[in-house]
Amino acid sequence: MKVYKLKDAAREARKNKISDEDLCEAIARAEKGHIDSEVGKFLIKQRMGRSGDYRTVIVYKRGDRAVFLHIFPKSRKANLSSYEETVFRDAAKVLANIGDVHIPALIDTGEWIEIEYEKYQKGISERSASISPSGDEGPPQGRRHR
To answer: What is the pTM of this model?
Structure first.
């Protein structure tokens, strides 16, 4: 599993004191099937923080790749606007299908930052054992309810 964060998401994480381990924990929960909200194809929203006080929007291809697009405190914004959901869905279609040969160039330009997912596996297993989806995300959004 390869995990990346966009430059803007990295800035948001740093500003909100969210570690790479916290980001990897959100992915580990998704890999176990604990997805808080499906926003669209290859696009999920996960809660983070001890009491779920942050949300993150992730391009997610199970077992393959995760790209953190956006991180926000729940206190600032309860949910994504319909415009934001549309923009993130469009981005997910592109980012989920970027070929592996293009990713090193994105990393070299600083647009993507790779997170060493495997490095955090042991600590995540112990931390996330007690965390389960909160159920406060409202009804699922996306294609599956059309």
So the answer is: 0.82
Contact present, 40 and 27 (Cβ < 8 Å): no
DSSP 78: S
Distance of CA 99 to CAs 48, 86, 117, 142, Å?
A: 29, 23, 20, 25
- Residue 134 vs residues 32, 46, 55, 127: alpha-carbon distances, Å: 15, 10, 12, 16
Query: In angstroms, what CA-CA distances link 16 with 22, 34, 51, 67, 115?
Result: 11, 23, 14, 18, 17
The residue with greater pLDDT, 55 or 132, is 55
Domain boundaries, the chain: 2-125
Cα torsion through 7, 10, 16, 49, rounded to 10? 140
**Closest-CA residue to 142 (of 53, 31, 45):** 45
DSSP state of 120: G
User: In degrees rounded to 5, what are phi and psi of residue 49?
Assistant: 95, 160
Beta bridge partners of 113: 5
User: What are the pLDDT digits (tens) for 38-84?
Assistant: 999 999 999 987 777 999 999 999 999 999 999 999 888 878 899 99
